[in-house]
């Protein structure tokens, strides 16, 4: 696959900095109207979980999707920040001993290792609930109907039929329930699990950018096709990293899927077939953006970035 141009990496870095400014402002110590107090320890843990690195790919998708329609500004940034809050909450909870039991995230101790399990759980809870506070608040969009649609989209992506459901299916596949033996999943079952656990929030980034920009139904359909292909590509690339990458580069433990007997497309199909599918998904993602012409070049590069990343 072709290399990612340096200007894309610079573009992504600029987005990371901009999103972090918004997140830092949102995680202020002063309570909002209706709040009584923001306990320092929870705020500190939220900041640690959300601001200690990360690619900010999900808010990046919100920002760049909205930009296709000439929409930028505070509301778009807040929408992206809300989506990132949900993503970061999921990482905090996934790392807990009851879930994936990880000690390292983004090259640093996981939140429950830096603080403690109770604080990590509460920080994750706070990040999740705050995401919907951000979306429901008027500074995100003047039209209440738009805010409601944003809330509904993120709820569906992150909840029972999305990320949470996908995490439960993933734990079940590891043999965490029942007789304790890992399940031998088909590729169809793996694709559904991964579309829920990982792909749903990436797809939501494209959907939410289109919603806040007032995109047409046809344009939304194209962006949803892009988002689905991107989500599947992201997971295959992630599974390849788990098989091949150095933990010091990735910033988290690797080789855990094989150790747990977890079913992935890489393990089911083999690395060569997985890489072939990855290339097909990048091509599909790029093709989905054809109606947008050169305006979508950054999103095309994002698909290549997802496939070629080393962490």
Quick structural overview:
It is an enzyme of class 2 (transferase). Helix content is 69%, strand content 1%.
Architecture blueprint of SSEs:
Layout: H1 6-26, H2 40-51, H3 57-67, H4 74-94, E1 104-105, E2 108-109, H5 111-114, H6 117-136, H7 144-158, H8 163-173, H9 187-213, H10 217-244, H11 247-250, H12 256-260, H13 265-269, H14 271-288, H15 297-308
Antiparallel strand pairs: 1-2
Helicity range: 55-70%
What is the count of β-strands? Answer: 2
Uncertain regions spanning at least 5 consecutive residues: none
Could you name the CATH topology?
A: Farnesyl Diphosphate Synthase
Return the CATH class.
Mainly Alpha
Second CATH tier, the architecture = Orthogonal Bundle
Which class best fits the helix and strand makeup?
mainly alpha
Instruction: Note the main sheet.
Output: 2 strands, antiparallel
The count of domains is 1
What's the average pLDDT? 92
Apparent shape:
globular
> What is the name of the CATH superfamily?
Farnesyl Diphosphate Synthase
Intertermini distance: 16 Å
N-to-C order of helices and strands = HHHHEEHHHHHHHHHHH
Beta-strand percentage?
A: under 5%
Radius of gyration: 19 Å
């Amino acid at each position: 696959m072709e290399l990612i141009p340096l200007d894309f990496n610079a573009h992504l870095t600029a987005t990371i900095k901009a999103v972090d400014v918004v997140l830092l402002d949102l995680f202020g110590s002063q309570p909002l109207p209706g709040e009584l107090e923001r306990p320092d320890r929870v705020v500190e843990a939220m900041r640690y979980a959300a601001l200690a690195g990360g690619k900010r790919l999900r808010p990046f998708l919100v920002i760049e999707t909205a930009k296709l329609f000439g929409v930028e500004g505070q509301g778009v940034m807040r929408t992206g920040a809300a989506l990132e809050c949900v993503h970061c909450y999921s990482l905090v909870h996934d790392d807990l001993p009851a879930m994936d039991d990880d000690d390292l995230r983004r090259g640093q101790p996981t939140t429950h290792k830096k603080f403690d399990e109770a604080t990590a759980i509460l920080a994750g809870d706070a990040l999740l609930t705050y995401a919907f506070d951000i979306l429901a608040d008027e500074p995100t969009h003047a039209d209440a109907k738009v805010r409601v649609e944003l809330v509904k989209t993120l709820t569906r992506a992150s909840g029972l039929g999305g990320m949470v459901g996908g995490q439960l299916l993933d734990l079940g596949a590891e043999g965490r329930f029942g007789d304790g033996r890992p399940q031998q999943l088909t590729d169809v079952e793996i694709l559904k699990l991964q579309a829920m656990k990982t792909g749903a929030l990436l797809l939501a980034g494209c959907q939410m950018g289109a919603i806040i920009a007032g995109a047409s139904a046809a344009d939304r359909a194209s962006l949803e096709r892009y988002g689905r292909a991107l989500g599947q590509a992201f997971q295959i690339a992630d599974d390849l990293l788990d098989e091949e990458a150095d933990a010091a580069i990735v910033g988290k433990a690797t080789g855990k899927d094989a150790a747990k007997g977890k079913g992935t497309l890489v393990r089911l199909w083999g690395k060569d077939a997985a890489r072939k599918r990855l290339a097909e998904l990048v091509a599909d993602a790029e093709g989905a953006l054809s109606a947008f012409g050169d305006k979508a070049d950054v999103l095309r590069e994002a698909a290549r970035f997802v496939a070629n990343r080393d962490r």
